[in-house]
Each structure stands twice: as C-alpha cells, then as structure tokens.
Amino acid sequence: MVEMPEINQDKCNRCGLCISVCSCGAIVLVENKVTIIETEDCHWCTTCEAVCPTGALTCSFEIIVEKD
Amino acid sequence: MTIDAAFLKSISYFSVMSAAELEANKQLFTEKTVQRGEVIIMEGELSDTLYFVAAGAVKVFKTSAQGKEQILSIARPGEALNDIPVFDGKPNPVNAQALGPVTLYGLKKDKLLTIMQQYPKVALNTNKVLAERMRQLVTLVEDLSFRHVLGRVTKILLNHSSEGAGANDHLTQQEMAAMAGTAREVVARSLKTLEEQGFIRIERHRIVITNKKSLEEIVAESG
Ligand code: SF4
Ligand code: SF4
Q1: Bridge partner list, B55
Q2: Is the Cβ–Cβ distance between B149 and B186 less than 8 Å?
Q3: What is the phi/psi pair of residue B113, to 5°?
Q4: A25–chain B Cβ distance below 8 A for any pair
Q5: pLDDT at position B81 over 90
Q6: For the segment B130-169, what is each residue's pLDDT rounded down to a tens digit?
Q7: Which of B101, B172, B201 sits opposite A49 (nearest CB)?
Q8: Closest ligand 1 atom, CA of A43?
C-alpha cells in the first residue's frame, strides 16, 4: 500500500485546483468526486495541500527520531 | 473567449461593482491561458497589464542571489498577481509561475484607471485591497526574519515525535502553521532551513529528526 494524501469530502468544494496542479495524475474526478489514486509517482510535494482553499486535502508527515 | 462577468464580481477589486456595471465593462478585459510551469510575471520586468487568476493556481515567489526560493503566497482564482508594479510603474518585485494550467484575465492599466474614474467606489475599495495585501506581507516579513517561528516549528516537531515508525502523530504543514501561529509558507521555509542544516530529513510522508540535540538547542535559544 502506498501512503497517499488524504481528502475530506465534507470540506471539498470541488474547485479542482488540486487536480490542476498535481503533476503525477494522482488526483482525479470520479463521478463528480475528487479522488486520490495510489501511485508511487506522488513524491509528496504537498502542492495539492498548498493550493486547497478549504483545507480538505492533507499531506501529513509522521515525525520520527532517528536512533543513533 | 468570453469574460465571465459573474466571475469578475469575485475579484476583490471589483466586488463593489454591480452585476450590470461589470457586464457593461467586461469587454475591457482580455483572457490568456498559460501552461504548467510557465512564468507569468518575472522579477525586474515592467507591467502595463494587471493580471487576475481566473482559473488554476499560481505561485508568487522571490528568488535570492543564491537561487533560494521563498514562496510569498499562492494566488487562487480572483486574486491579482502584479498590482504593485502596475500601480507604481516600477519593475515587478516578485515572480509568478503557473502551478498547473492557468487562465488569466488581464486589464490594461489605462483601462483600470478609466474604471476607477468612472466608479470612484472601485478606487476607494482598492485602498482596502492593497492594505490587506500589505498586512499579509508585514506579517510574513516578521515571521521570516525573526527566529521565534523557527523555534516554534522546531518545538512542534520535538513534541510530536517519537523513536521508530508506527503509532506516531501525523501532522501536515498546514496544521504546524496553525499551531505555530504563522503562514504555511513560513513553516515550509523553517523545515527547509532545518533540513539544510542537517538536523532533519524530509522524506515522502515522513520527517526524520537526525539531530535531536541541535533541535533542542534551537528551541532553548528562541526562548
Ligand atoms: S503531493 Fe504532489 S504529487 Fe502527491 S498528490 Fe499532491 S500534488 Fe500530486
Ligand atoms: S483543492 Fe481542495 S476543495 Fe478544491 S477540489 Fe481539491 S480537495 Fe476539493
């Protein structure tokens, strides 16, 4: 399973900005619903989160301390 | 190519105009489309046309002499890209680049001035629009120039981290920004600074703290 950005459908207003900026084609419209497809091509640039005006799209980071 | 008068109403500059007034003036605007990655505005150039984003998203940024990029804002539909150089007649202080396919509405400076003369309420409203922009920039300058935000972002990372992958907290840059009381652009810059110093490593879906001690020192220094 590839971790992908997440979308909260309740907050999404279907403005399509995330789809327009994603260069890897991970974000698509399926039956009028913004959907994220699993792909290794997503390099977690977080641009989709940056452009989303409603905070519906999130690219989260797990914060880990590296053991020496 | 038709200019959407209803959309013009969503541009803050023209929000004070009525639908009929916008309909009567929409032929003053021109439409232009640009592709992903295309530079719309280049720092140092002169602008005689004010551009508004009609569709898509645009990155507004500055580049340092060392080639470092600082995003100032992301312009979404309804926002102007180059009001500063259009109003003062001096070179563009920023760059603007399309993040995906973008449609722009353009309005030549002389036509903008004609609208302002005909509808003084637009001129009055412009003060408000520019003051809001100035407020946003002043806050950004403050957060970028002092180390307190770097300290706050660093503290957030430490507070939400643990050793080994698994049941850790997940945070977005947007959430970190809200927690640190700053803009997302400032968080992005802080993370990049920490990465350049070799204290963290930003991976796909993970931020790895590689030098916890140095992060703790940053927090201590920023008080
Ligand atoms: S993080 Fe980047 S590559 Fe991944 S889905 Fe968002 S915009 Fe596309
Ligand atoms: S940018 Fe946000 S609100 Fe717009 S379609 Fe994408 S997820 Fe929905």
Answers
A1: B103
A2: yes
A3: -65, -35
A4: no
A5: yes
A6: 999 999 999 988 888 877 899 999 999 999 998 866 667 8
A7: B172
A8: 3
CB atoms B209 and A23 under 8 Å: no
Report the SS3 class of residue B54: strand
Which tens digit of pLDDT belongs to each residue from B15-65?
A: 999 999 999 999 999 999 999 999 999 999 999 999 999 999 999 999 988
Between B148-159 and B184-196, two packed helices, what is the crossing angle to 10 degrees?
Answer: 80
The tokens of B83 are what? 């009001």
CA atoms within 13 A on the CB side of A60: 14
Q: Give the C-alpha separation, A31 to B159, whole Å.
A: 41
Single-letter amino acid, residue B137: L
Q: Which residue has the tokens 């100032």?
A: B72
Confidence of residue A39 (pLDDT cuts 50, 70, 90): very high
Q: What is the ipTM of this complex?
A: 0.91
CB A61 within 8 A of CB B205: yes
Two structure tokens written together for B62? 């500055």
The DSSP secondary structure of A9-54, one letter per residue, reads TTT-----HHHHH-TT--EEEETTEEEE---TT-----HHHHH-SS
